[in-house]
Amino acid sequence: MTVPDNFFKTRTAVGLWLLAVALVILGMVIIGGLTRLTGSGLSITEWKPIMGALPPLSDGEWADAFAKYRRIPQYVVENQGMSLAGFKAIFWWEWAHRFLGRLLGVMFLVPFLWFAAVGAIRRSEWPRMILLFALGGMQGLIGWWMVTSGLETRVSVSQYRLAIHLGAALLLLVAILWIALGYLRASEGKGDAKRGFAFAALVYIQMLLGALVAGLDAGLVYNTWPDMNGRVFPEDAFFAAPWWINFFENPGLAQFDHRIGAYAVAGFAGWIYAQGIKRSGYAKVSAKAVAVITTVQIFLGITTLLLVSPVWLSALHQVTAAALLCAAVWHAFELKRLG
User: Lower CB count within 10 Å: N or C terminus of the chain?
Assistant: First the structure.
């Protein structure tokens, strides 16, 4: 099948490009999750947006990078005696995550300039594209801000900054997905999409709760289901003062909140499905997608918990959550088009 000569000047091409960008962001979320799960996020102790694109290329450069890592608490407390080979293993995860961020910037900026020049992206649409690019750059700053929280006194990054970093990435993902769908499918309708937006918001909040669980290593406690080691509610849930701080710093309560969030998502997804199958076209298809992905995600969540959060399963659980968020946004878009 041949591509028409003017295809790369069409709005369809813009939509496909934005979907590709969204896929790269999804890849960054996956690798970011693996970076945290493997304890690799603090392996690069400097932020060099330009020069940092190149990894160490000589034995001397590797030795220098390793020496800087050996000065931070994570090495002193948790990884004392790590070999250079062990350091390289965690280094490459963090480097790959940062490299994808740099690639994403180029992947967005260069095609945008082309599409803007040929008129596929109208002048009135330039500001939102520039805003997306700026948000992508800000995400890099947020990522470094997160890393700095683990370089002085902690052995891991702050769970608060981790949640903010993930939350910003997800906002960028859904914004690009929504705009891409607008280029690929006319979105002039004014249908009632409140249900779809509410479900997407709930999934987003549930993912932030998951980030708190990850940041607190809360998946390593209470590894039974549906009870919590024989209890309905975690033990000493409000041991810290003030009481509200426990929702963010008590691993047991963070896991409990994430469980409750999962039940809420499951119930809402069931309602989405029940209402969606009454529709037609992509609104019906997207409702089914929400139901299927939610079912898979529930199975993965329970299995991850029971198996005490193995790395590969935890990563799969996170990427499925991101897929569910995308499906929720797609369903909201289709409901909007029905008007």
Answer: N
**For the chain, which ranges sit under pLDDT 50?**
none
Q: What share of the chain is helix, strand, coil (3-state, %, to 5)?
A: 75, 0, 25
Same domain, yes or no: 238 and 309: yes
Q: Which residues contact 207 (CB under 8 A, 6 or more apart)?
A: 166, 167, 170, 321, 322, 325
Instruction: Check whether residue 47 and residue 178 sit in a common domain.
Output: yes
Residue 177 shares a structural domain with residue 76: yes
Q: What is the pLDDT of residue 9?
A: 82
pTM above 0.85, yes or no: yes
Contact 217, 198 (CB under 8 A): no
Closest CA to 179 of 135, 125, 134, 102: 125
Return the SS3 of 49. Answer: coil
Beta bridge partners of 231: 228
Whether 22 and 161 map to the same domain: the answer is yes
Q: Are residues 20 and 143 in the same domain?
A: yes
Domain boundaries, position 121 = 1-184
Q: How many separate domains does the chain show?
A: 2
Q: Which long-range contacts (CB under 8 A, 24 or more apart) does 128-136 make?
A: 128/179, 132/108, 132/172, 132/175, 132/176, 132/179, 133/105, 133/108, 133/109, 135/168, 135/171, 135/172, 135/175, 136/101, 136/104, 136/105, 136/108, 136/172
Pick the last residue of a domain from 137, 153, 184: 184
> How many Cα atoms are found within 13 Å in the side-chain-facing hemisphere of 35?
26
Burial 267-292 (b: 16+ CB within 10 A, else e): ebbeebbeebeebeebbbebbebbbe
Which residue(s) pair with 311 in the sheet? none
Phi, psi of 309 (to 5 degrees): 55, 60
Q: What is the pLDDT of residues 91-109, one digit of tens each?
A: 999 999 999 999 999 999 9
How far is it, in rounded angstroms, from Cα 306 to Cα 301? Answer: 9
Here the tokens at position 57 are 């290329």
Which helix (H) or strand (E) segment holds residue 279: the answer is none
Report whether 176 contacts 23 (CB < 8 A): no
